[in-house]
Design brief:
5-stranded parallel beta sheet, 3-stranded antiparallel beta sheet, flat, mainly alpha
Length: 1002
Amino acid sequence: MAALEAAFETVRQGGPAALLIGGEAGVGKTRLINEFTTSARAAGARVLAGGCLELGADGLPFGPFTAMLRDLVREVGADEITGLLPGSGRAVRELARLLPELAGAHALASAPASAEIGGPAAGGAPAAGEARARLFEEFLTLLERLAEQRPLVVVVEDAHWADRSSRDLIAFLIGYQRALRNVLIVVTFRSDELHRTHPLRPLLAELARIDWVERTELPRLSRGQAEELAAAVLGRVPDRLQAEALYERAEGNPLFTEELLSCPDGCAEIPGSLADLLLQAVRRLPEDTQELLRVASAGSGSTSHALLAKVTGRTEDELNAAIRPAVTGNVLVTTTDGYAFRHALIREAVHEDLLPGEHSGVHTRYALAIDADPALVSDGRADIEKAHHWYSAHNTPEALASAWQASAQASRAVAHAERLVLLARVLELWSQVPDASDRIGADHVRVLEEATTAAYDAGEAQRGMAFAESALAELDESTAPVRVALLLRQRHIFRKELGLPNALEDLDRALSLVPETASKQARTQLLLSAAHDGCDAAGPHYRHLADEALRLAREAGDLDAEAQALATLAMIEAGPSALATPGSEPFRLLAQARATAQRADAYHPLAKLVIFESHLLCGAGEYENAAMIARQGIADSERHGLARTSGAFLAINVAEPLMYLARWDEAVDISERALDLAPPPLTGAGLWMICASAALARGDIATATRRAAASRAVLSGVRYEDQYHLPQAQLDLELKLATDGPAAAAALAAQELNRYDLTASSPRYVWPLLAVAAFVAVATNGFREDGDGNAALLDQLRSLAEKTEAFGPVQQAWQLTFAALVPADDTDPRQRLAAWDTAVAAWDAVRQPYQAAISLLAAARAALAVGDGRQHAAGRLRRAAKLAASLRTGPLADEITSLALRAGISLALGDAVAAGDRDGADEGNGTAVRTGQLGLTGREFEVLRLVAAGQSNREIATALFISPKTASVHVSNILTKLGAASRTEAAAKALALRLFDVPASR
C-alpha cells in the first residue's frame, strides 16, 4: 500500500510511475487494489480498471482495455469521450475496435472490414501494423486527455492471462509513460502461474528495467499475521491447536486461511470451491503426470527422488518424463534431493482424490520402503516418517508402536511439537490395540506423563493440563504418591501459565505427599517450584523452601537442581522491587548458579538464569547488557528446540530494554519474529504490548489499537500479574488519551487505579502507571497549574505515590517525573521548572531519550511560566525537537513544534535563532500570531517552510518522517488556507508575510 501511495504521489507531481505486483492466487492482490483504488478515488483520482480472463489468449484480445472503455462510457457517456479526442472521427473508429458501442452502428458500417486488426491490407485500407499503431496512439491520447482533468489510475489485473495484444499495449503505455503525466499504471499477475515458458515472463523482465517501473511481490502471511487474521475473522484469538493446524494447511495464504475458517466443520476436507482453484494447474497436466502426483501427495513435505522412484516402481527415465511437466507447471518445486508441492493445500487436494484402496496401499508402500532403507529419508526422520505412513495406511498396531518409537527420536532431536503429536497419537490408538502396553513396554499413565512433559516443552499449556488431569484420574495417591505429586506440580505450572486461580493448592498438596524420606529428588523439584513462586514475596517462608531445596540438591549431587535453587535464592534476595546491581548479592548468587549449571550441562536452569539476569539488569537501567544477555538466551533456546517458549519469552527481555533505549524498530522486529512463532498467550500479550507502545509513540494509532486489543483480550481472562496487567493499563491510558482526549483518559485512569491493588504490586510497574495517570490528569487541565477538574484523581495519585517506594535510578526517574507533574502543594514556577530539569537529568542518566524528550517539553512549558521564560524554554525545546526527530515520533514532534510556534521560538539550531531572541519578543510573537490567524497548524507551518524551499512532497515526507500521501494532504490544506492556486504562489505569500525567521534551506 505504501508503494502504491508513493507511486501515486509521484505521478501527481508530474513524474512517471508504474507498479508490477505479483503474488500467488489468494495472497490478496485484488483486495490490495480495491483498498488502494478506494483511497485514490477519495483523493480525487479517476480509476480505469480491467481484468484479463483465462480464455483471453484465444478469444478476447484487449480484454482489460475493452472493460476500461466500457466502464468509462457508463460513467461519462460516449459523447464526452469522443469530445476529448482530436480528429474525433478517426479516433473513434480506432477505439471502436475495442468497444463498438463508441462508434454506433453507422460508423461501424462505414469502416472498411479490411482495416480490422490482423486483417489483410487491401485497397486504401491501412496495413494491420499501421492500424494497430493508430489504435495504441489513440488509446494513449485518450488517457492523456483524461489525466488533464484529474489524476488517473490505470489497473490491469490478472495479466498472467493477458493475450498477446493486451501485453503489447501494456508495454506500449508503460514505455511512453513520460508523455502520460498524472497517470499511474498498475499491473497485477499470479506469480505462481508463471512457468518457465510463460509469455508474460519476458515482458515483466523487460518492463522491470525501466527506471520508473517497480516490481514487487506480495508475500504470504507470517505465522503471527495468520493468527491475527484468524482472530479478526473469528472474533476471538484461536486456540493453539486451531492456529497451528490452520497455518500448516494454509501456509499463510490469506484466501485459503479465510476459506478454511469459514467451514462449519473446521474443514476436515477442503471446500469444493477452494479445491477447484487449487487443482486448476494440476488438471492441465498429462494424465501420467497426474498419476505420479497422486502418489507423491502421500509423501510428507519434501520427497526424495530415490524414494519416489522406489514407491512408484518407475525407471529413472520414466520418472523424469512424468515429473518434468509438474515442475515446469509450478505444481512441484525442486528441493535439495527431491520434490515438494508448491503449496501444502495443493498436495492435500490431490491426496483427497485418492480412492480408499489407493490411499492405504500407497502409504503402506512408503512405510515398507523406508523400513527397508532408512537412507531414503533425511537423517533422524525414518521413525517419524514410518509412523506417519503406518497411521495413514490405517495399520493400527504398527501405527501405535511406530509412533511411540518415533516420539523418543523426536525427543532426542528436541522436536517437542512433533513429539507431542506422536504421543497424542499413541493415546488415540491405545484402546484399539489390546496388547498396547506389551508392544511399547509402558503403561497408559506413563504415556500420559510423557505427553504432559512434551506439552510443557512445546508450550501447549491447555493440552498439558488435560493430560496431567487424565493421568491423575488413573492414579491412587496412596499407592503412587510421588507420581501424583509430580503431576500435581506440572498441573500447577500449567495453571500458572494460563493465569488460572488456585494454582498454589496443587503445590501444597504435592509437598504433603512427598516427605524427604519418600524421594529426595521429587521433594527437591517440588520445593523449587514452591520457592520460585514466592520470588516476588521475599518472605522467610520462601527463603526457607529454597534453602531446603539447595541442601537436598547438594546432598544428592544434583547440579541441575542446585543451580535452580541458587537462581531462586537470587530472585528472593532481589525482593519485590526486582532491583539488583551488578556485583550485589543477587548477581553473586546468579554467577554461582551459572557455574553450577554449566558443570551440569543443564539447559533449563541456564534458561531461567538468563531470564532472571536480564530482568534484573533491565530493572537497574542496564539496558544494553540486559538485551545482550537475553539475545544469547534466545540463541540457546533455539538450539534446544524451545524457541517458541523460553525463546519467545526472552524476546520480551530483549525488546523491553530496547524500547527504553528508544530503539523501537529493533524492539518491534524482535517482537514480531517471536509472535510469528505463535508463543503461549501470556508471552504473546507481552510482545503485543511492546509493538503497540512503539506504534503509539510513532503515531500509528491503528496498529497500536489493534495490538493493544490483542493483549487486552488475553489478559482479561487470566489472573492478575503486575508485570502484565499494569503495563497494559498504562498502554490503555496512553491510547485513550491519543484517541479520545484527556477527559476520557482521566475517566479510564480512575477505573484502572481502583481495579488493582497497587500497594501490593511491584513499584517497578506501579511508578510508570502513576506517572502516566498523572500526565492524563494534568492534560485534562490543559497543562495549567490552576484548575482542579481532576482533584479527586490527583488526590488518589498522591496517596498512592506516598505508599510506593522507589528503588534504583529508573524507578526514581519515574518518581521525579510524577513529582514534577503532581507537586505536593502550590509550587513556585521556578521550582516547577527545577523539578522538570531534575527529571530530565534522571532520564538522561538511565539513557531513556523518549522520556527525556517528553520531560524537556514539560520543562519548556514550565519555563514559559517564568518571567523571562522564552529564553529558558528555547534551549529545552530545541533539544526536545532534536530528540523527537531522531526517534521519528510524530505526535511528540507535533507538540514541540506547536508550543514553539505559540511561543514564537525558532527550533532551528546553531546560527538559526529565534527573531525574538535577537530583537525582543514582538517579532517572534508576530510570526506565531500570523500563522495562527491563517489557521496553519504546527505541522503545516513546517511543511510550508519546505514548500517554500522548493522541496517535493516525497522530500518533505522524508524530512518530516511522514508518508508522501500525508505530505500531499498537508500541502492541499495549506493551499486552501492561503488561498493559493499553486505551491509557488503559496511560497511567495509565506515569504511576503515574513512567516519564516530564517529561509528554509534545501
